[in-house]
Design goal:
The structure holds 2 protein chains of 2 kinds.
Chain A lengths: L16 H33 L3 H8 L3 H34 L5 H13 L2 H12 L6 H6 L8 H12 L1 H14 L2 H8 L4 H30 L2 H7 L9 H10 L3 H29 L4
Chain B lengths: L2 E10 L2 E11 L4 E5 L6 H9 L6 E6 L2 E2 L10 E4 L11 H11 L4 H14 L15 H13 L5 E5 L7 H18 L2 E6 L2 H7 L2 E6 L2 E6 L1 H6 L4 H6 L4 E8 L2 E4 L2 E3 L12 E7 L4 E4 L8 E14 L2 E8 L6 E2 L12 E7 H6 L7 E6 L3 E2 L6 E4 L4 H9 L1 H10 L2 E4 L18 E5 L4 H10 L4 E5 L8 E6 L5 H12 L7 E6 L5 H22 L4 E6 L2 H11 L3 E7 L3 H12 L11 E5 L18 E4 L1
Parallel strand pairs in B: 3-8, 3-9, 6-7, 7-8, 22-23, 22-24, 24-25, 26-29, 27-28, 29-30
Antiparallel strand pairs in B: 1-2, 1-4, 4-5, 9-10, 11-12, 11-14, 11-18, 12-13, 14-21, 15-20, 16-17, 16-20, 17-19, 25-30, 27-31
Helix pairs in contact in B: 2-3, 2-4, 3-4, 12-16, 13-14
The chains are: A mainly alpha, B alpha/beta.
């Protein structure tokens, strides 16, 4: 949502030393807190990764398992993010524009992945598609593997990242209202043209914002993926899982090197997000 | 006819927002739909564009039935209150949108865009974004965009609502010019009467989902048919006058009035509308150029540029009675509003507290059959119950009609109650009420409303005429009631079991005639339905269903005959636990004796609302 700059506090009495002191204290607390909790650990990641020099750092990326983990993470994100973007837009549009039975149920369902622990969402898929699961026998007979394979990882990631786009768009669509869409319809546009020419351009920054958050989570998801992946090295380990495996094997440089790559991706995401905010004036 | 609305009804959650609306708009006409918010005017406009579907009725554009067509096949242009320009497109893209949809070639599109921008005086603004334009400019672009595909009908939904006063006036002129140049049939929705006057060839006033009146601005202003229209189109003083063979009597003044010769000797109570500019003030009554009403005291003087607004309160015993329920009108000294132009102001300077003489130049008599309400009760409890009955509350609030209360037990006095030429006399319904009705009719009451204690707000209104002679006045009463209750109307034809073919045909014809008469005289449309059986059976059925329906009975019978007729056909509605209010309209019998009432065929027509 577009929120203006905070109004400069300039009421009488706002410039006494006490008021200034109070203001400085609040800013100091917030900054110090962020520094201790966010910046220091992040620096520690890079420090640890580079502890044995650049050579060791780049060597850590040489292993084929690491390559596989990076590839798997990117494939998962490439499949999950577009799917959730489409579902998210559809769900948000349905909730913001239509009246239908079960609308409140759908609204609640969208929030469900936020409420449920990721471990549980992973377990659900094991329960459904695992060897002892409901469809397990049938799947085995047909030689289809979902759990401990790519499809399971994608399903679990889809589940966890489902809310990001939809939740971003629902309030946006509601605030924008339907007047421009009605104008397009009254001018003779069909539903698809109205959506792509009028609605989508209006919400595009919201969509991109949702996509970025969705992507960040898809790459970084640990809990749900950990349950369904089976930790098969070089096959079903995504980057976060790979970090854990390396760490457990006391390969600190390797673990932190991959972790630093993940952090870099996250930072890149933040940079893109900030760039969008600067360009579009879109702000949450 | 360019646009035809045929009995349009639109409901939201079972409440009707547009109610049986019929209207025709001529080609090239600029029609303004005027009404307060929530009156259904925007819904009607959206229905023309196809942005809202309607539940019943038909819409024709240029003879083509478009009721079920999607918006793009209707060929209309729509201008929204908040412009609804596409924010992400330039002015040029906005205007060309409808042309792009229609796959027009780029060169052609460009030519048309230039034309339109010239038309709305925004040449050279092609590449601007809407956010770079002022509100007035944005609305001009919106108009150009709506006209791009050369629609036969232009629809504007409060287009100037979000603009400030000066730009509004400017845009109004521009819009009128564009409309006249192109000759596009236009409907504009607004709640601003000044805007309606400035723009409309014709104005239609809507209230509670109904089209109350249509007409040229001046005609509506000078000769409104309803209180609502009179007060919505500018300030108005409502007073009760008396129509006698000499003319219209208001206080000491008697004004000439058409149709006064036909009035009965005793006079008839009517509602007169006096516009503030039709009143005159002078130091003494000899100095008045118009008819003297009475003396008054100045209460308020306020200056508003070209005119001056004066509020005066009439002196005691002028005989002028207010027809409104306004709080400041509570006592017997009505308050009147006067506007004076600069010349008058120089002639006589006024200050609060000053004594003046009040004169009237012209007064308009509303054709409404309900001038005021008189509550006649037997006890204080019953009086409170009547005043607080939902039906009474709704009618008086919506009509803003005056309510007088008769003190004491009206039936206990040996002399008849003073209800002579009053408006509607309200009594409590119940077993004794039929006798009360006869007694009040004998005392001169012509409209008697019986409200049972259990009555809520009626869901329907049913009308029955006991004789043809009473039909037109009963329909007038029905029309007046319908305008102030949020209900739908159905005309039910009542046929005796085993009636002959000829009788049935006659009953049908009468039903259709009645519907046509209602439409012609009052502009109200109703649905039709047929019920087979006796009248008393119908009322019994109504009572058993326990629904709350207002029953309007018209008759020209004498009080004693009326008592018998009511007892014969309607007694179930006068039991202690009835839920149906009954409104009796008594007409003076004017015909010579030989066309006796008993020999006339009974009109078996019900109109249910």
């Amino acid at each position: 949502m577009a929120v203006g700059k905070p109004r400069e506090i300039d009421r009488p009495g706002a410039h006494t030393w006490r008021a200034r002191l109070g203001r400085a204290a609040i800013i100091a607390v917030a900054t110090a807190f962020a520094a201790c909790l966010l910046v220091v650990p992040l620096c520690a990641v890079f420090a640890q990764a580079l502890a044995k020099g650049w050579e060791a750092y780049f060597e850590a990326f040489g292993s084929s398992d690491t390559h596989a983990a990076i590839r798997l993470t990117l494939i998962t994100a490439l499949i999950v993010v577009p799917l959730n973007t489409i579902f998210g837009i559809a769900a948000a549009y349905a909730i913001a524009r239509f009246e239908f039975r079960g609308k409140s149920v759908l609204t609640t369902l969208i929030e469900l992945p936020f409420a449920v622990s990721p471990v549980i969402s992973g377990l659900v898929y094991v329960l459904l598609f695992g060897a002892q699961g409901w469809f397990g026998v049938w799947l085995q007979e047909h030689d289809i593997s979902i759990v401990f394979a790519l499809p399971g990882i994608i399903l679990a990631t889809l589940f966890v990242t489902f809310p990001y786009v939809a939740r971003e768009l629902i309030p946006l669509l509601q605030i924008l209202g339907a007047e421009e869409e009605e104008a397009a319809i009254s001018l003779g546009a069909g539903p698809w043209m109205t959506f792509f020419r009028v609605t989508l351009p209006k919400i595009r920054w919201g969509v991109i914002y949702g996509v970025i958050l969705c992507n960040a989570r898809a790459m970084g998801e640990f809990g749900a993926v950990s349950v369904v992946s089976g930790h098969i090295r070089g096959l079903t380990t995504t980057m976060p899982l790979h970090v854990e495996i390396l760490y457990n094997e006391y390969d600190f440089v390797g673990a932190f090197a991959v972790a630093s790559l993940l952090s870099l991706l996250a930072l890149l995401t933040l940079v893109i997000k900030t760039a969008i905010e600067l360009r579009s004036g879109y702000r949450r | 006819m360019s646009i035809q609305f045929e009995r349009i009804t639109k409901r939201y959650h079972n409440a009707s927002v547009v109610n049986d609306l019929t209207l025709e708009i001529a080609t090239g006409e600029f029609f303004v739909l005027l009404g307060p918010s929530g009156s259904g005017k925007s819904t009607l406009l959206r229905a023309v564009a196809g942005l809202t579907s309607i539940d019943e009725g038909r819409i024709h554009l240029h003879g083509r039935d478009v009721t079920h067509l999607p918006p793009r096949e209707r060929g209309v242009g729509f201008v929204f209150q908040h412009y609804a320009l596409f924010q992400n497109m330039t002015v040029a893209d906005n205007i060309e949108f409808a042309l792009r949809v229609r796959r027009m070639r780029a060169a052609e599109r460009r030519r048309r865009r230039k034309e339109l921008l010239k038309l709305v005086a925004l040449e050279g603004y092609d590449d601007r974004l809407p956010s770079q334009l002022s509100g007035g400019q944005q609305q001009r672009v919106a108009v150009a965009r709506a006209l791009a595909h050369e629609p036969a009908v232009l629809l504007l939904d409060e287009p100037f609502g979000a603009l400030d006063a000066k730009i509004r006036v400017e845009l109004r002129r521009a819009l009128r010019e564009v409309q006249q140049r192109l000759g596009t049939t236009t409907i504009l929705v607004t709640h601003d009467q000044e805007e309606a006057f400035a723009l409309g060839d014709r104005i239609g006033v809507m209230h509670m989902g109904r089209l109350l009146e249509t007409g040229r601005p001046e005609q509506l202003y000078r000769q409104p048919a309803t209180r609502f229209v009179a007060s919505f189109l500018g300030a108005a003083n409502f007073v009760l006058g008396e129509l006698t063979p000499d003319g219209l009597r208001i206080g000491a003044a008697t004004l000439p009035h058409e149709g006064a010769e036909g009035a009965s000797r005793e006079g008839r109570e009517v509602v007169a509308v006096i516009r503030p500019e039709e009143l005159e003030l002078a130091e003494r009554k000899e100095l008045l150029e118009s008819e003297w009403i009475g003396d008054a005291v100045v209460r308020e003087v306020s200056f508003s540029g070209a005119t001056e607004r004066v509020v005066v309160q009439l002196a005691r015993d002028t005989g002028v009675r207010s027809a409104a329920t306004d709080e400041r009108q509570a006592n017997e000294r009505p308050v009147m509003e006067i506007t004076r132009h600069a010349g008058e102001r120089l002639g006589l300077r006024l200050a609060p507290g000053q004594n003046v003489s009040l004169g009237v130049r012209r007064a308009h008599v509303l054709p409404t059959p309900i001038s005021s309400f008189v509550v006649a009760a037997r006890s204080a409890d019953s009086r409170t119950a009547l005043l607080e009955a939902p039906l009474m509350q709704q009618l008086t609030r919506s009509m803003r009609a005056r309510v007088t209360v008769l003190e004491g037990d009206f039936a206990a006095n040996t002399e008849p109650p003073r209800v002579h030429h009053a408006g509607v006399v309200v009594v409590a319904s119940g077993p004794g009420a039929i006798a009360d009705v006869a007694r009040l009719a004998a005392a001169g009451a012509r409209r008697i409303l019986c409200i049972p204690a259990a009555a809520g707000l009626p869901e329907r209104v049913l009308v029955h005429c006991l004789s043809d002679a009473a039909r037109s006045s009963t329909l007038g009463l029905l029309a007046s009631v319908m305008r102030h209750l949020h209900v739908e109307a159905t005309l039910v034809c009542l046929q005796a079991r085993g009636a002959s073919r000829a009788e049935r045909a006659a009953a049908f014809r009468r039903m259709l005639d009645t519907r046509a008469a209602l439409q012609a005289a009052h502009g109200l449309d109703v649905r039709t339905d047929v019920h087979i059986g006796e009248l008393s059976g119908f009322t019994r059925e109504l009572d058993t269903r326990g629904e709350c329906a207002l029953v309007v009975v018209g008759s020209d019978a004498s009080p004693s005959e009326l008592q018998n007729l009511l007892a014969e056909h309607f007694s179930v509605l006068f039991t202690a636990d009835s839920r149906c209010p009954v409104l009796v309209a008594v007409e003076d019998r004017q015909r010579p004796a030989h066309t006796s009432h008993e020999q006339e065929p009974r009109t078996s027509v019900w109109s249910s609302t």
